[in-house]
């Protein structure tokens, strides 16, 4: 168990800090739009809105905290340059901020970081170095680099300026949705949820602020239960943007005071949420950016409305996007895998395909198996992959096959 951070040594972020941050970020970070979501509202039984930080400069909220932190460096610190560690979003925020401020930037990224995030970071002028599998390992390398070279470490979440900068998104939420009752925020190290909670609770203490983590990288529940940041021993999630093994001390102190709860969502829920956002909201987000919507889809009637779900980032690798969409379609019942026994006679397969055509299912793949100890001499097992319109349609397809006398194994 980690030791309790000394509360005197850990800075506390206040509403005044967030308000000052907003003044300094004017003309740098944009006030991102908020969109009404009719499909989520129908599920939740009340208004649900999407705070579109995926449309922020660099494609995520990170420019808010990165620029504020870097703009406040002394001239001597700026001359030494900056170093950061990031799976991609903080990297781009630091790289753009360095470009705007005329600073030299080096960014350590975990191996396998999304290609678009790497290219964008280089495109803003930063040097990229790959190290480790997770952000925590890249962060250790960045610290070593800082000690060797004197470059100032720009932490992705564990600094009062970073938390205050991210908190400006909370001010915008209250202005764009003054009647809000619940705000759900994707949560990794905690900079965004803590900063937003500080701003929101100071102005509207009745608003319920919820952090949302991927269950395969959920350090916050145990940390909150123990009263101090706890480190995970391993992580496994597609949501690289919130795959952080330990909450930061600064955001943790703010979260203890201002965040009401932290919930977790599965990989299947993240996939469904990402797919739904593409289909229904026409919003491209990364898996981490879909976490708040995943929590809404998991328990649509749990949250008080009007509710706001923060889409924290939209920097997704197209290859990963394709995989996640397919995974989301499977989780949503849009893919159906069946084994069907048919007579080993001319026209047997044609009859099966005809029945499937009548049901409106789209055949994606077919394979035969004739030699098996469980098959009769006059039988063939057909393994078939279908595309359906959803779980109800998939059930209707299976029912129709059985009504026609086919032996079906799902």
TrEMBL record:
Protein name: L-threonine dehydratase catabolic TdcB
EC number in record: 4.3.1.19
Annotated ranges, domain ACT: 337-410
GO biological process: isoleucine biosynthetic process; L-serine catabolic process; L-threonine catabolic process
SUPFAM superfamilies: ACT-like, Tryptophan synthase beta subunit-like PLP-dependent enzymes
Organism of derivation: Nocardioides perillae
CDD domains cross-referenced by the UniProt entry: ACT_ThrD-II-like, Thr-dehyd
Matching Pfam families: PALP
Keyword Amino-acid biosynthesis recorded: yes
InterPro entries: ACT-like_dom_sf, ACT_dom, ACT_ThrD-II-like, Ser/Thr_Dehydratase, Ser/Thr_deHydtase_PyrdxlP-BS, Thr_deHydtase_catblc, TrpB-like_PALP, TrpB-like_PALP_sf
Main function: Catalyzes the anaerobic formation of alpha-ketobutyrate and ammonia from threonine in a two-step reaction. The first step involved a dehydration of threonine and a production of enamine intermediates (aminocrotonate), which tautomerizes to its imine form (iminobutyrate). Both intermediates are unstable and short-lived. The second step is the nonenzymatic hydrolysis of the enamine/imine intermediates to form 2-ketobutyrate and free ammonia. In the low water environment of the cell, the second step is accelerated by RidA.
Pathway entry: Amino-acid degradation; L-threonine degradation via propanoate pathway; propanoate from L-threonine: step 1/4; Amino-acid biosynthesis; L-isoleucine biosynthesis; 2-oxobutanoate from L-threonine: step 1/1
Top EC class, one word: lyase
Cofactor: pyridoxal 5'-phosphate
Recorded catalytic activity of this chain's protein: L-threonine = 2-oxobutanoate + NH4(+)
Family: Belongs to the serine/threonine dehydratase family.
MF-aspect GO terms: L-serine ammonia-lyase activity; pyridoxal phosphate binding; threonine deaminase activity
Assigned keywords, A-Z: Allosteric enzyme, Amino-acid biosynthesis, Branched-chain amino acid biosynthesis, Isoleucine biosynthesis, Lyase, Pyridoxal phosphate
Known partners and oligomeric status: In the native structure, TdcB is in a dimeric form, whereas in the TdcB-AMP complex, it exists in a tetrameric form (dimer of dimers).
Origin superkingdom: Bacteria
């Amino acid at each position: 168990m980690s030791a309790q951070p000394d509360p005197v040594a850990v800075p506390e972020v206040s509403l005044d800090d967030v308000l000052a941050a907003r003044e300094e970020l004017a003309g740098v970070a944009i006030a991102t739009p908020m969109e009404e979501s009719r499909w989520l509202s129908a599920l939740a039984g009340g208004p649900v809105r999407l705070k579109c930080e995926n449309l922020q400069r660099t494609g995520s909220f990170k420019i808010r905290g990165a620029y504020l932190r870097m703009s406040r460096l002394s001239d001597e610190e700026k001359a030494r340059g900056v170093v950061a560690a990031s799976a991609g979003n903080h990297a781009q925020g630091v790289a753009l901020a360095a470009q705007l401020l005329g600073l030299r930037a080096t960014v350590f990224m975990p191996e396998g970081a999304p290609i678009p995030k790497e290219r964008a970071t280089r495109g803003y002028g930063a040097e990229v170095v790959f190290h480790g599998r997770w952000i925590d390992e890249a962060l250790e390398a960045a610290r070593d680099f800082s000690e060797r070279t004197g470059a100032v470490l720009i932490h992705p979440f564990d600094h009062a300026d970073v938390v205050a900068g991210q908190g400006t998104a909370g001010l915008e939420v209250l202005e764009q949705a003054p009647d809000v009752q619940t705000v759900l925020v994707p949560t990794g190290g905690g900079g965004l949820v803590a900063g937003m909670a500080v701003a929101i609770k100071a102005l509207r203490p009745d608003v319920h602020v919820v952090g949302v983590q991927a269950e395969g990288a959920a350090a916050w529940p145990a940390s909150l239960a123990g009263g101090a940041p706890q480190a995970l021993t391993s992580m496994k999630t597609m949501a690289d943007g919130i795959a952080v093994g330990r909450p930061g001390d600064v955001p943790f102190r703010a979260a203890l005071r201002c965040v009401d709860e932290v919930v977790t969502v599965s990989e299947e829920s993240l996939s469904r949420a990402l797919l739904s956002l593409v289909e229904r909201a026409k919003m491209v987000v990364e898996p981490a950016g879909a976490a708040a919507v995943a929590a809404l889809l998991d328990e649509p009637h749990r949250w008080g409305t009007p509710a706001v779900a923060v889409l924290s980032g939209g920097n997704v690798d197209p290859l990963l996007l394709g995989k996640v969409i397919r995974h989301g379609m499977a989780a949503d019942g849009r893919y159906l895998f069946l084994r069907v026994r048919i007579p080993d006679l001319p026209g047997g397969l044609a009859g099966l395909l005809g029945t499937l055509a009548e049901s409106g299912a789209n055949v994606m793949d077919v394979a035969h198996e004739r030699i098996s100890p469980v098959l009769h001499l006059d039988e063939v097992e057909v393994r078939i992959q279908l595309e359906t319109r959803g779980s109800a349609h998939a059930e209707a397809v299976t029912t129709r096959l059985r009504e026609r006398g086919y032996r079906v194994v799902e």
